[in-house]
Design a protein that fits this description.
The chain is about 30% helix and about 30% strand. By secondary structure, the protein is α/β, with parallel strands linked by helices. The longest helix is centred in the middle third of the chain and has 16 residues. The protein binds adenosine-5'-triphosphate. Adenosine-5'-triphosphate binds next to helix 1.
Length: about 290
């Protein structure tokens, strides 16, 4: 996983009242991250700082990219927009100084992506909250976007519209985008979220849901020349190596499951003889290490 943004020791106060204290967390590329916490815990404040709209009193955000393109969708969408989606997005693009042809083509792509081609020329006054929410996300994505920030995107949406938005978020992630959003409870987006940042007592606790436990294999083989294995294995992977009466060596290694096939191939190329291959879990691995 590549790091997109690293928040280090972020502190924020409003008029002498501390909101966040010495908060650190990491945002990985191509993930969906949910910021959760009670009303007034500082979710919007944190999102605005990530978006660069307000500055922390202390600490810094370090990005792995030189210029990180951020799209921000605020919590409160304008209640009445008299334009059609196409007109509104054209205005927003022009305000940002986008070239006409690029803007029109981007709007076209976004209308298709969000399944709103049919209503592109309909006045938005009659749009549902979910449809307006989509338009707000589209305007944040008019420029190429690496990181999309959504403040309470699900608030006030019925279940069907929430599911619809979940699908949209999944599609955006598949296209390579990283999305950070705030919501009141983790349950709402549990199918799509990779990482939860929980704000509690001015601190942030990070839980990575997408990290799958690493599985290992124990492999026992015999090899004629012990120097061969030095290039193939990390020192920590070699559990035991014992000389045999025939001049060969018996070697026991613990290797990550996804690297096992490749190692087997390399060992066979060196004329090693495979004696045993058994899966072990992380816990067993540590017990055997102790
Ligand atoms: N511009 C501001 N000036 C002073 N206080 C502010 C300002 N913005 C936010 N606050 C205060 O900071 C605290 C955190 O606000 P914030 O909006 O970040 O919380 P939140 O978790 O997003 O809340 P909610 O779930 O209700 O949207 C609140 O007590 C709020 O009143």
């Amino acid at each position: 996983m590549n790091i997109l943004l690293d928040a280090r020791n972020i502190t924020k106060q409003y008029r002498g009242t501390s909101i966040l204290e010495n908060v650190s967390f990491t945002i990985y590329d191509n993930q969906i991250i949910a910021i959760v916490g009670k009303n007034g815990s500082g979710k919007s404040t944190l999102l605005k700082m990530i978006a660069g709209l307000i500055t922390p009193d202390n600490g810094s955000f370090m990005s792995s990219k030189q210029a990180l393109n951020i799209g921000y969708v605020p919590e409160v969408a304008p209640s009445t927009i008299l334009f059609t989606p196409k007109e509104y997005l054209q205005h927003m693009g022009r305000i940002r100084g986008m070239a006409k042809q690029k803007l029109l083509s981007r709007i076209n792509d976004l209308l298709i992506l969000f399944h709103l081609e049919d209503v592109q020329d309909t006045r938005m006054t009659h749009f549902s909250k979910g449809m307006k929410q989509k338009i707000m996300i589209m305007q944040a994505m008019l420029n190429e976007t690496d990181l999309l920030i959504l403040d309470e995107p699900l608030s006030g949406l019925d279940l069907q519209t929430q599911n619809d938005l979940e699908e949209t978020l999944k599609t955006l992630k598949q296209q390579g985008m990283t999305i950070i959003l705030s919501c009141h409870e983790t349950k709402l987006l549990e199918h799509v979220v990779d990482t939860i940042l929980m704000i509690h007592h001015k601190e942030v606790m990070q839980t990575d849901l997408s990290v799958t436990p690493t599985t290992y294999n124990q492999l026992i083989f015999e090899i004629s020349n012990i120097t061969y294995i030095k290039d193939l294995l990390h020192v920590t992977e070699i559990q035991q190596q014992s000389p045999l009466a025939n001049g060969f060596y018996e070697v026991i290694v613990h290797i990550q499951a996804q690297r096992t096939d490749h190692l087997l191939q390399q060992l066979l190329d060196k004329n090693a003889s495979i004696k045993q291959l058994i899966p072990i879990n992380d816990k067993e691995k540590f017990i055997q290490h102790d």
